[in-house]
Please model this.
Amino acid sequence: MIAFVTLAELQHFTKAAEAIHLSQPALTALIQQLETDLDVRLIERSTRSMHLTDAGREFLASARKVLADFDDALRNVSDYSTVKKGTVRIAALPSICASWLPALLRGFRDKYPNIILKVIDVSGERLDDALRTRAADLGLNSCHDNDEYESYPVVADRLMVLAPKDELRSSSVRWRALEDRPIIAMAPGTTIRALTDGAAATAKVRLKIVLEPQLMPSAIAYAQAGLGWAILPSTYAHRGRFESLKAVPLCEPAIERTLSIVHLRSSSLSPAAAALRDHILSTREAGGPLARSAQKFTDKRK
Model:
């Protein structure tokens, strides 16, 4: 098709052959084969001149469009491979979405403005489903390497208790001290609730759970209203200053978790998804929001 379009534009076999780096007999053979395949004469030629037939002129318009579409396709693929275009779907735990993820996404968008980011805010159970059904390319979860997932550790956090300042004067609280307190625990099915239940069982403590919010801002609001002490992760507890509340680590046992970027081993990452993964990992090393989050966690452990 390139041979035909070049010949039609130059109106000369020798010049057209030179333009596409073919011999004149090879170009002639290509045109003849094209006419045979289409079962129509495209070019009238004589010893001195050549011109397109009516069918040739009609075919030229279509051939130019096909070549233009092909060039566009090549450019699109090139943009995709060089991370100039693409879409990344991220499934993340609510505590991550409400703490350090927004700043990371802003930094990534500044670097790759044409990449579309789609974030799914889900619990741990639903996050796994999003990855397995390919609804998400990357997950941000408390997960380690296994046969199903490849994971990249990002930052660690731990369970904290948030309570009114006048009720919480120590720098840490033992789980056993929660036994007689009204507790605001995240809803069953959430990662934080699973950690909370596990820690209470280890400490042999029966928590008096009075509220089970799905959303962390709701837990904060309940605690601020004096309805109980809230158990939340440090990544969220350090998100901002709560005027009437104080956040301290829970201990005996201290419950820590590692938050990681994960993806299915059975799926290769797109260039855009790989770029986001690398951006998140490099941000901690460069002193970005992940590094600051990790430092707050470290400071609380001292």
The mean pLDDT is 84. The domain at 2-80 is CATH 1.10.10.10 (Arc Repressor Mutant, subunit A).
